[in-house]
Write a structure and sequence with these properties.
This protein folds into 4 domains: 189 residues, FAD/NAD(P)-binding domain, CATH 3.50.50.60; 148 residues, FAD/NAD(P)-binding domain (3-Layer(bba) Sandwich), CATH 3.50.50.60; 66 residues, Arc Repressor Mutant, subunit A (Orthogonal Bundle), CATH 1.10.10; 377 residues, FAD/NAD(P)-binding domain (3-Layer(bba) Sandwich). The protein contains 23 helices and 51 strands. It has 987 residues and is of the alpha/beta class. The strands form 13 sheets. A 9-stranded mixed β-sheet has the order 31-49-43-46-45-44-35-37-36, with helices on both faces. Strands 32, 33, 39, 40, 41, 42, 50 and 51 form an 8-stranded mixed β-sheet that branches. It is globular and about 90 Å long. This is FAD-dependent oxidoreductase. It comes from Jiella pelagia. InterPro entries: 2Fe-2S-bd_N, 2Fe-2S_ferredoxin-like_sf, BFD-like_2Fe2S-bd_dom, BFD-like_2Fe2S-bd_dom_sf, FAD-dep_OxRdtase, FAD/NAD-bd_sf, FAD/NAD-binding_dom, Metab_Enz_Cyan_OpOx_G3PDH. Keywords: Oxidoreductase.
Length: 987
């Protein structure tokens, strides 16, 4: 319903829009979410992740464009956030995606770039975020004389704190101090001449002088001399049973509806959580006729110690304490219950919120279920504090520190001037460390002036002194406020197993607890095994909770930084970045940097094993399974956690035909080694199917056939020549014309004139297959050690002594299965194993309708493309990435992202109607096109087992190695795969 405010009225002509076939009223300039809420509609879309329950609806949750739970389709454009998308009138809004078929295609989300050159802009100081901190920083830098640009994703400046009135409303006079201060800050920016760009999505930064944005749907790369991150915070998740029901939202989301759009989140509202923001929302709603059933505060009623803090807060900010008193009085006047020391413990309702269960909390944070009560409500607003939006800073490699409050989260380490560990990069406000709007404004002013002065712009030396004094006062107030609202520690152990933990993927607490208890107890491993954090919100609402679960169930300190940083920090339209780029001529070979992020592990002293496999990737898993089933005592030694590096970052293609760069002029060693490997492809796919059947689990193996498409007659000639070579090696390759291709794959571009088709190709889920293979190997008797870095290997008589970071291992046989690091392992025994690492990128989109069934490659360009069982489209094809030394991470490159997306959209045009969710870089193994298998010359008992087509061929090379070791002969002639083929490899 719409709120009636004395000083606020409509500023827009009423319009209409259609939602799932219903004509609904709206005010031009308000968001779709606000218009739906005004019509009493809480259910916005059907959940499209996890179990895909068709009765499971989702609604507005965060209200600030961070959770993506409210995405809808607007005029054919999928993935639009209802909380940010403005209504102009006449829109057709749907809760579901287009089907992707001829009459219902995905509409492009952005216009294609006009030319091959992206727009770039240089600026003295770039500020990301126009909340209190960003506006203060921009104003201070501008007053020093610097050229300043402020980028903000929202349509209006002010951030989550100031929340200006939407264009659909106008005020006869601004209702309160918060609105007035926001308007004053905005006027000061305009008067100073600060360039403020609204609707700008900053999706990442690769370097401090390379900030990637989309402005009005167009790609712009900013190259600032100084970068100030004022990215704000998002509300900390508080998972309870039913928290994904429509009608359950954050306090911030409800406040945005009420303050900015004049719309109530419901008719009967419960506000629950911790902190004064909940009181402000509840009193505002009550003052405007909404029934606030209760305010549920997890902190106990303030006692004597808190009253002392209250006195300190009153001295630091008397006007804020007075406001708090007015909130309490307003609630009392309207008969709203104030439940101190209570928490919301469940939300009920089959398809949207109907009831809220609350219970008192003990000092240990546990709810007393025996004293619980159930309240009727159609809206539950949860506000339990905030998490700093550190994503851009972490992507750049800025150092983090631990913020121990709430569940414990990461904050950015900054100096007294707001500078991070990276020179020239500042972080201010809640985006660095959550401390409230007054601290944010003071730190913004200090950082803005410091950045400008560091560039040589003049400034009054005393100009920041008021900000520094204000900062000290604001910090005293904030400290006192936290003391007043000190709540019991969060206890996750009582949350039922069936409760959703990861909103995007529908993963439950029970699933994650079971994984941790089974030993898969790192965030990276949980992500790969379960898809935790892989959805649209990019782990914002699950990473902290999962990290706390790991701590509670293992006793180890929780990982502070969460998942490894990935770009984009928010999804962006694929169409906006699709630019043609030059094709490279081969793998960009790199060294083999030590990427170890090894889990904590105790020393083990001395142990023995019959066979030691070095490397816990997919090849190591297959070797463990082969030897364990053969009755051998096999031990896998892994420096990090299993499946964490090259294998875990793999795209999961099951290649049988030659890739375009394995044949012809681009091929390594003339293409001969790659051609010699062809017989292993179909054999490996069959082995994978056998392993999956024996393991009793779904590896998501889909032998759908593989297409290598062509756009030109030259491309078709290339495919025909390649197919002849493949047929000579036993591959059943067919050449398809235009019409045959269209019949087989109607979702591909009509500009394609033909393709080569190999029916035996397909795909596999590497996030499932490797782990289940390891589990089967362990069940058969294999052992493994993680967090164990091999530092030396020596021959002692008839055995090998392997020195590691945790102890010494004696073994009769050593198998080098270290993938990109195989050269380092070989060097330990005096061998030159010519294996190189070549960091490559991959990209995945949001879930899409069925667009392509086959594994798709391109004859002339680098492309590997497939649609996953989840619906996302995975795009790769050997576009290079880079190694960031200061982060010890492989990271993606802008040119590669642009070029990869351009090729992908030429082949599957409807990718232009999707958002890119994630890009990442994996360490590819680069040899000469063929594996290295067999006992090393002059090193009895030392075997190599490495392949550059690692995932497909892993079970094949493992089988050959086991056969050679146990019988002295193999199912295939391994002469083309032996180390001796390389000149200089002999002892």
């Amino acid at each position: 319903m719409r709120l009636s405010r004395r000083h606020v009225e409509s500023a827009a002509t009423p319009v209409e829009f259609t939602f799932d076939g219903r004509r609904l009223p709206a005010l031009a300039g308000e968001t779709i979410a606000a218009a739906l809420a005004a019509s009493g509609i809480a259910a916005i879309r059907r959940f499209d992740g996890g179990a895909r329950d068709e009765t499971n609806w989702r609604g507005l949750y965060c209200g600030m464009g961070a959770c993506y739970d409210c995405v809808v389709t607007v005029d054919g454009r999928a993935g639009q956030r209802a909380c940010l998308t403005k209504i102009t009138g006449g829109e057709t809004v749907s809760s579901s995606q287009p089907t992707g078929t001829a009459g219902d295609k995905l509409a492009p989300l952005a216009e294609a770039p006009e030319d091959g050159h992206r727009q770039e802009a240089e600026v003295d100081v770039l500020v990301v975020g126009a909340g209190p901190a960003g506006m203060a920083a921009a104003l201070a830098a501008k007053r020093c004389g610097a050229a300043v640009v402020v980028l903000d994703e929202r349509a209006q400046a002010g951030g989550q704190y100031y929340k200006p009135l939407a264009p659909s409303l106008k005020a006869k006079q601004l209702p309160d101090r918060q609105f007035r201060h926001g308007a004053e800050k905005m006027a000061a920016l305009e008067e100073a001449g600060v360039a403020l760009i609204q609707g700008a999505l900053v999706w990442g930064a690769i370097r401090p002088d390379e900030v990637m944005t989309l402005v009005a749907g167009r790609e712009v790369v900013y190259r600032p001399k100084k970068l100030i991150l004022a990215t704000g915070a998002y509300e900390r998740p508080y998972p309870i049973p039913g928290w994904t029901l429509p009608g359950v939202m954050t306090t911030g989301a409800a406040q945005t509806l009420a303050r900015a759009y004049g719309v109530s989140p419901g008719q009967r509202v419960v506000v629950a959580g911790n902190g004064p923001l909940n009181l402000q929302l509840a009193s505002d709603l009550a003052a405007h006729g909404v029934t606030v059933v209760a305010v549920v505060e997890s902190a106990p009623r303030p006692g004597l110690r808190q009253w002392r803090s209250l006195a300190e807060a009153a001295l630091a900010a008397p006007e804020l304490i007075a406001e708090g008193a007015r909130y309490r009085a307003m609630l009392a006047r309207h008969g709203t219950r104030m439940l101190w020391g209570h928490a919301a413990v469940a939300a009920g309702g089959p398809s949207q919120l109907k009831t809220v269960t609350v219970a008192p909390l003990g000092t240990d944070g546990r709810a007393d279920a025996a004293q619980s009560m159930t309240l009727e409500a159609d809206a539950l607003c949860l506000g339990y504090g905030f998490i700093a939006s550190t994503e851009i800073g972490r992507a750049l490699g800025c150092e983090t520190v631990h913020d121990p409050r709430h569940l414990g989260t990461a904050a950015l380490r900054i100096s007294e001037n707001g500078e991070t560990s990276l020179a020239g990069v500042y972080a201010v406000g809640d985006g660095a460390h959550v401390a409230g709007s007054r601290v944010a404004e003071a730190m913004g002013a200090i950082a803005g002036a410091h950045a400008a002065e560091a560039l040589g712009f003049g400034g009054d030396a005393g100009a920041t002194q008021p900000a520094r004094r204000g900062l000290a006062t604001a910090r005293r107030f904030q400290s006192a406020l936290w003391d007043i609202f000190a709540a019991p520690p969060v206890d996750l152990s009582t949350i039922p197993n069936e409760t959703i933990l990861c909103r995007c993927e529908g993963l439950t607490f029970g699933r994650i607890r079971a994984e941790i208890d089974a030993g898969w107890d790192s965030l990276g491993t949980l992500k790969r095994r379960t898809r935790l954090g892989m959805g649209r919100c990019q782990a914002r609402y699950c990473a902290t909770t999962a990290a706390r679960l790991i701590e509670e169930r293992t006793g180890r300190p929780r990982p502070v930084d969460g998942f490894a940083p990935r770009l984009p920090v928010k999804p962006f339209p694929a169409a906006a970045l699709a630019r043609q780029k030059p094709e490279w001529g081969g793998h960009a070979r790199a060294g083999s940097p030590n990427l170890s992020r090894a889990p904590m592990a105790e020393p083990f002293g001395e142990i023995e094993a019959e066979i030691v496999v070095i490397g816990g990737g997919v090849v190591g898993a297959c070797l463990a399974l082969e030897f364990a089933r053969a009755g051998k005592d096999v031990l896998v030694v892994e420096r990090d956690d299993v499946n964490l590096q090259a294998s875990g970052a793999n795209a999961g293609s099951l290649h049988v035909q030659l890739l375009s760069f394995d044949f012809g002029k681009k091929a390594e060693a003339g293409g001969g080694p790659a051609a010699d490997t062809l017989p292993l492809g179909p054999y490996a796919v069959k082995l994978w199917q056998e392993i999956a059947e024996a393991c009793g689990g779904d590896f998501e193996i889909r032998v759908t056939g593989g297409l290598m498409v062509a756009e030109t007659e030259a491309g078709m000639a290339f495919l025909k020549a390649k197919a002849e070579v493949e047929r000579r090696h036993g591959i059943k390759a067919e050449i398809l014309g235009r019409s045959e291709l269209r019949d087989l794959a109607p979702g591909l571009s009509e500009d394609l004139i033909g393709a080569e088709y190999v029916a035996e190709e397909g795909k596999i889920n590497p996030l499932t297959a490797t782990y289940r293979t390891f589990e089967a190997a362990k069940a058969a008797g294999a052992r493994s050690l993680r967090g164990t870095n091999v530092t030396a290997i020596e021959r002692n008589g008839a055995a090998w002594t392997i020195t590691t970071s945790r102890g010494t291992i004696r073994a009769g046989t050593v198998i080098n299965a270290a993938g990109p690091w195989a050269r380092e392992i070989g060097a330990m025994v005096g061998l030159d194993v010519p294996v190189y690492s070549a960091p490559l990128q991959m990209i995945t989109t949001e879930r899409a309708p069925a667009l392509v069934g086959q594994l798709v490659a391109h004859a002339d360009r680098h492309l590997s493309l497939k649609q996953l069982s989840t619906g996302g489209i995975l795009i790769g094809g050997a576009w290079p990435a880079r190694y960031a030394e200061h982060q010890r991470l492989n990271t993606t490159m802008l040119d590669s992202i642009e070029g990869n997306l351009w090729v992908a959209q030429r082949v599957v045009p409807q990718i232009a109607g999707l958002h890119v969710l994630r890009s990442w870089a994996g360490m590819n193994v680069n040899i000469d096109g063929a594996p290295i298998v067999g006992e090393a010359p002059g090193r009895p008992g030392f075997y190599n087992c490495v392949t550059s087509n690692g995932y497909t061929l892993a079970p094949a090379v493992a089988r050959l190695t086991r056969e050679l070791l146990t019988t002295g002969k193999a199912s295939f002639d391994v002469a083309p795969y032996r180390l001796e083929r390389f000149e200089g490899s002999r002892p």
